[in-house]
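Hi D.,

Good news: the full-assembly prediction came through. Inputs first.
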Amino acid sequence: MPPHAFRPPRRDWRGWQFTGPFAAVFVFVFIAPLAYALWLSLFQNRLVGGNAFVGLENYQTALTDPQLWDGFLRVLVFLLVQVPVMLVLALIAALAIDSARLYATGLFRLVIFLPYAVPAVVAVLMWGFIYGDHFGLAADVNELLGTDLRPFAPSWVLASLGNIVTWEYVGYNMLIFYSALKTIPYELYEAAEIDGARGLQVVKAIKLPAVRGAVVIATIFSIIGSFQLFNEPNVLKPLANNVINSYFTPNMYAYNLSFAGQQYNYSATIAIVMGVITAVIAYVVQLRGTRREDR
Amino acid sequence: MSTAHRTIHPRARRPRHSITRPRKSLALTVLMGLFLAYALVPLAWLFINASKTQADLFSGFGLAFGDSFALWDNIARTFTYDDGIFLRWLGNTLLYVVAGAGGATLLATLAGYGLAKYAFPGRKAYFAVILGAIAVPGTALAVPTFLLFSELELTNTPWAIIVPSLISPFGLYLIWVYTLESVPKELLEAARIDGAGEMRIFCTISAKLLAPGIVTVALFAVVATWNNYFLPLIMLSDPNWYPLTVGLNQWSEQASGVAAEPIFNLVLTGSLITIVPIVAVFILLQRFWQSGLSAGSVKG
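Then the structure:
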């Protein structure tokens, strides 16, 4: 046997010519800001003495900051209600479209997905005007039916927001579930048919287990999205006078600390605290989701 | 499509009505019609009200057309208001989309392909970091990115919008899955024996096989940059660099603010103009995003 056969294979660097450019930009816009945020969170800009290293003091402040936890609780309530409602609706739509029992299936798939293409700003402006009493549908309905719908009332504004977010993303999640359903092999249905399974039995025994992975992924993305809630309440703010405050969500709080209050260090701390909480919850959901799959 | 063999089967094997080819249900179709209505009513409302004059907006039912059909007049006024700033915003948006989404697609495609086809040193760590990045909330990065960019004096320039748009971990993941599925190793080996370089193999062979996946990634990158709001909001203070989303929101604040110059009709018409191109792109390319996404879910 020739001696070179025993040499370890030469290191193959060719992959880097493809992956290098992405990595370079990634470091610049992802790793560097993350490191910079960590660095910032350890300092405080004081009137006397300027920029001073304070260790974990900002984190201590954050943990007992009522405005941060007020916003946090709000997005928690939001996600506990809105995410399940949206995902169940998306799943129903996906199952209906996949069932092949609809007329004009393609139309349903396209139209339900369409709101995803609408920019969040436009979606909120649109719904905001619909909600409003200037010339909105809510006012028209109230006039017509004598009801008292006030989507901008303090007790309703969270639900009004939930409706906007659901409208934007239900079709996107429907598509994810639908794609998962499409990967079920035909033989499985054939076998089910021989076993005499019908309608909802097939849904329960074959379709729901097949979309479990997709549901876990969609749940994680929705949780991340809820904790980041910013665009919708921020655009709705001028339309819903005085109901949405500057710390309505943690993200709005961080934004306003930076750009209205110039408190960059504390703002970076809040961004990191929320990032850690989000990552932990996403990780736990993923663990639970996959563990059930193993059983 | 790569998944076609899973779904298309000889019709002859199927009975007339079965689990996979059941009778159509009118009741279910009507019920699902509620979904269609939910998705469409706000868009219809926008179209109807973008065609009204300011006076008609405040009188009459929201889902009925006004006394006069003022859509064309509204469009003309949207483009000429404030020295045609709206046209400038449209141009900015196009610039950010072409450079940002185009660059994001290129980088994600190259990297996803490289990860799938080459066992280079550091590959495992590379992949783990990118997957971890998907879980990091993007907005946790926004404020630090702003601070970093302002140190580098990049804020208030197009670079502040374009450079962060270049990274799409989800796009990279999609191309990785797609490459594993649709670029056979044997084809690459054959090309290497013919003496072709790696980049040349990618450009002449692999890119063609990956085309549906690339279009999908491009489409979602286009939507993400076209709809981007948070990043330009924090990065830009000069209205001349605003994209449509930030500009429209500024008009809306102006309309409902105190010393209000009511330009509700322009906000509505501007919103309509903002969504028409992106919706058109989605409808025209639906073959791609529907198949491209299902490829992603095979492994996902």
